[in-house]
Amino acid sequence: MSQPTLNIALIGYKFMGRAHSQAWATVSKFFDLDAQPVMKVVCGRDGAAVSEFAKRWGWQSSCTDWREVVARNDVDVVDISTPGYTHCDIAVAAAQAGKHVFCEKPLAFTLEEARTMRDAAKSAGVKHMVNFNYRRVPAVALAKQMIDAGEIGEVRHARFTYLQDWLVDPQFPMNWRLRADAAGNGAHGDLGSHAIDLARFLVGDIAEVVGMKKTFIEERPAEGTSSGLTAVAGEGTEKVTVDDASLFLAKFADGAIGSFEATRMAPGRKNYNRFEINGSKGSLAWCFEDLNYLDFYATDDPGRARGFRRIIATEGEHPYAGAWWPPGHMMGYDHTFSNAAADLVQAIAHDKCASPCFGAGAKCVAVLEAVDKSIESGAWAAVESI
Amino acid sequence: MSQPTLNIALIGYKFMGRAHSQAWATVSKFFDLDAQPVMKVVCGRDGAAVSEFAKRWGWQSSCTDWREVVARNDVDVVDISTPGYTHCDIAVAAAQAGKHVFCEKPLAFTLEEARTMRDAAKSAGVKHMVNFNYRRVPAVALAKQMIDAGEIGEVRHARFTYLQDWLVDPQFPMNWRLRADAAGNGAHGDLGSHAIDLARFLVGDIAEVVGMKKTFIEERPAEGTSSGLTAVAGEGTEKVTVDDASLFLAKFADGAIGSFEATRMAPGRKNYNRFEINGSKGSLAWCFEDLNYLDFYATDDPGRARGFRRIIATEGEHPYAGAWWPPGHMMGYDHTFSNAAADLVQAIAHDKCASPCFGAGAKCVAVLEAVDKSIESGAWAAVESI
Amino acid sequence: MSQPTLNIALIGYKFMGRAHSQAWATVSKFFDLDAQPVMKVVCGRDGAAVSEFAKRWGWQSSCTDWREVVARNDVDVVDISTPGYTHCDIAVAAAQAGKHVFCEKPLAFTLEEARTMRDAAKSAGVKHMVNFNYRRVPAVALAKQMIDAGEIGEVRHARFTYLQDWLVDPQFPMNWRLRADAAGNGAHGDLGSHAIDLARFLVGDIAEVVGMKKTFIEERPAEGTSSGLTAVAGEGTEKVTVDDASLFLAKFADGAIGSFEATRMAPGRKNYNRFEINGSKGSLAWCFEDLNYLDFYATDDPGRARGFRRIIATEGEHPYAGAWWPPGHMMGYDHTFSNAAADLVQAIAHDKCASPCFGAGAKCVAVLEAVDKSIESGAWAAVESI
Amino acid sequence: MSQPTLNIALIGYKFMGRAHSQAWATVSKFFDLDAQPVMKVVCGRDGAAVSEFAKRWGWQSSCTDWREVVARNDVDVVDISTPGYTHCDIAVAAAQAGKHVFCEKPLAFTLEEARTMRDAAKSAGVKHMVNFNYRRVPAVALAKQMIDAGEIGEVRHARFTYLQDWLVDPQFPMNWRLRADAAGNGAHGDLGSHAIDLARFLVGDIAEVVGMKKTFIEERPAEGTSSGLTAVAGEGTEKVTVDDASLFLAKFADGAIGSFEATRMAPGRKNYNRFEINGSKGSLAWCFEDLNYLDFYATDDPGRARGFRRIIATEGEHPYAGAWWPPGHMMGYDHTFSNAAADLVQAIAHDKCASPCFGAGAKCVAVLEAVDKSIESGAWAAVESI
User: Which residues of D touch B216 (CB under 8 A)?
Assistant: First the structure.
């Protein structure tokens, strides 16, 4: 094939590293792409572990120093799937080295960092994209199309909740996600950032917020030796330095109003990333726990037959779905990463902006920060413009 | 008011007697009727009990002999809510005495009885109606309207299941519903008759059937002294002489095909009277456990927004619903009896046929019997015409 | 029967008047009560209309002056189902006349009025109850039992939303519910008061709030001649003086955190009064649009079989349900009013406090007011204690 | 790695070929296997097309003659994903050449062929497995574990329906699935075989059946030039020679009773492969359209809190799920193929029987044939033993 190649370097090889690897291994099988991603190198701090990971997942090589990776001539795209506190340094260096940058969310801990990243990417003229993967669920992308087409009219209400329950057990031990220095925020940054990005994607910019955060369990067993995805407790306890939950109200720039909630303390909710949007002509509702469905209500359906339509977003005419299976052959979590990879490859191949770009990532961080400001002041806070 | 009155006599005062009494007490409050039902007399075998019942439920009088009731000059409508083995005698006597007859389902144990009842009512020129109350759920009546309007095209598939679980516990004691001489059939007659009537209402006549019945628990604790609605066991055991479950396949006269199931042995299904009907242009699905909803799929909805619509059948333009509450103010079990009473009163007031009439009741019995014939022969059996 | 009677006087005969009438006509049929309610008199301003209403619904008499009713010696209970601006005067007069008082919600427009009502009732030593009817849905009452029994542990999260859509159409004309002088608030008072009361019932007192209100359609066609439940537009337009929607965040006194939303602008949501409560050991969720169901998740269920249980709250052992029908025979909107009437009658018969009393009604008003204060200040506001 | 390799040869490269390729490319990344599958060669009739497919999906080579593939020394497993009429020849040749055989469903058109295949595999001492992939949905495998553990007691009722809608449009053109010579059966063999296999997996052997089949649209536009997954009509029409739908009743060997339905004519049902099983102690229900959920009802849950539990089968302790993502990160259609591949690899690596083996595949065909016999005779037919 005369198709150009895109050499990918992955930084990080844990949960997100697996999801990104599966995406890169899969994307060009299902999608007709105009460039061919090549799994060039994966980078992590533990040399033996990252080498084994590379073999297992089909990366051509591995290494332990991201600076070395970023400097390689045979790397086109740097894919950052490490914890948030590392994003800025890697992304800026990668951009400065002329690499396209794909970065996990949230883009950064602080708006300042996020702006630095965006500016670096813009100055370098590389493509930049933050991986808010839920935009790539077919049902969510369909919601965006329908809103843009005016099918629910002018948006008035937006309700976003992202509920999980993995911290309900007080014996669940500490890990990096519970430390402010490594994770920045708790549920607020981890889950809330997804909710904010979806809201910005579907409804628009947020102007003002007022909110609160809460840590229900303030001390947990210390972290033990990690054992794959299973949490193991060590000796003693450690103070939790992030929130378990955040809630806030929002005024959108265009007049819509909304509420947001993120928590890891909702028993039975495993990955309950849900929204409902009400407009002047209809409503849309979606939840990741039923990811293939989009519920749609149209006020102009005939009166006696009006009701929420439960659309199964797996038809050929639905976004992304045509690349996969026949209608009704459901998609799962990892498909969203392949869909994102496809969009990124095509943006690079056609020299177009990728979306959501680092600017969008920064706007999300601005909302997170505005909530923190409102908590300090006990009053509404404006979202800083980017 | 110059509105004519209709004096009602109720025979039977147990579960169905309560439901009918509530209907007669309620119907003229919510509906604008052209005759005024009057709760004249209730009849039961236990004089003290029926007298107390009359006081509690607002019947003007009570008595213990249905023949006396039937003969009364001041009775216009005889409402039969007693077990099935009594229906024929009472209904025929009532018709012959010139009373309109409202009869609980199934109309009779045998097709012969059912025909006798129908003929008696026809000869007498009285109104006759069998109380298949599920026809009067607004969502079901809406389904009928939509099918008649061609909204799902030509019907091809019909699936009817009526599942309950009150006999799962082997210690649940005997009662009349478990004795062939009193109940005729078990789940087949009790629940299957509802399913058959709904199928006939919505899809049309059934031509041929093949089926089976099963009694999973063949012996149960003897019946003790009854205590209201709670079952109490006596000493010893008694043989169950009816089925716990029946299943059959059906060929409808118009070419549609269907399956039916009735059981009292499905743990967790409390009153799971469900149907799904697929036509050439769409589908409809309903279940009593969500009685206010009708699910509707239309193949001619726009492609990307096609999905089952979950219609909440409580709008003013939905059948019966306008008489009750504003949209979204849900209806329950007893509303179906009031809706039936309203239809009966209007049929009498306007001298029109009530529906489902005894002919329809007889056709339902014919299907029940055809299933029994198919069980005897192990082969498909034709449904006798009425 | 030597059972004492309770003579009821109903003030108001529109939507709520019908619901209350149905409750009084029904309650003693299904419930074994220790006093017998008698439908003595109904009162309304239009003499002809209220007289017709009395005949239709079985009230012994009617009249046009509530002061006369309150003064009658043969009235034991004054049932106030008029718009909110009339509540205080009637309730205070009734209490001072020694009548028990049953009052529609919200109790009053202002905390000052609410306190006056509560004090008058307390001084008079009469029973007083505000009709937050959703407490009387069996599934909701079951949730209360389960929370009190510790089945979900310590409550952490409370999410209350009450969504309707009857104002989405900008051509829907004005009525009293859209005028501040008659209704006090819009969605905030009408729907939000229900949400607040349920939250107080299930979770406890609210300490602090921050919120917002919004009127999306600020001018509507003027009100025409009313025609039953159907809205008819007159000539010209009129300014809407209440909110279409309100949202607020809450800190409960015991440490739980919550969010509240009330709107009449959510297409497809007919009576979507929903809550989800997450505790340290489990979760509960309920929505009026599926009123007979309570969803329950228990963290101590066996691991592989953990999941939200969809409880159908119609079993004999569920609150209120035993009085009605066998399991699976669903209940509707009006059953909640009968359940409330049963509780009130029993409270009077046994000389116990009715619940929710006017104190609870006042506490609800205090939360409504605190939200208004927070809107004025743009900051968190403390809920005044009662 | 010292891990042994397993060289895979895939025959067929259309819909099933893609699904199998994705499985082989993915399985050893997520699962810790004791042999390493190698994508050696893919075989199809169109040399250019299969060569392109090989490059895209990562097969080391391609060829056009399955006999050549079967004879290769460097092939360990022959994976047959071609239409049913080719299965027998390929499988027998592969077995005789000493290759393990993985075969798409239904195993064969006739019981005779199926027995030949099973005998050939047994004689050759190779592993053999038929790809009823729905057994590998975690929620279904969980259902099997729970039934085996007695959690729903003795099974009484089994209800299996598999509904699709891709043939509703009469303009949908012919393809091989609508020709008896290529496909054997229509919905009966394609969808019904899945339902039968799940029933045998979960409930046990079927002893007797009675059923019917129906072709609603007997003539369709001729097949045009195929264009990927999109159907294109050619000129003229062609007679449909398979069924659009089949229904049958079943008596299981152990006393349970069941109903089965398969159709491609149910508007709105995209891949509605559903079962509900009722036992003496509980119930289980599942549908592929919500594949990650298993509904479970236990009669011994505490009375007031009894209800169907909606288990999200994505926990580490659920079958297969631990290999993939954290709880709540949903799985889709293609995961079932990877799960099947993992089981097959492990069976080969540990020299254990794979399941479902060709014997199970033959038993499924025996049920399909018994239904056909019952249709000919119009009476119940015994299922032939294998």
Answer: 156, 280
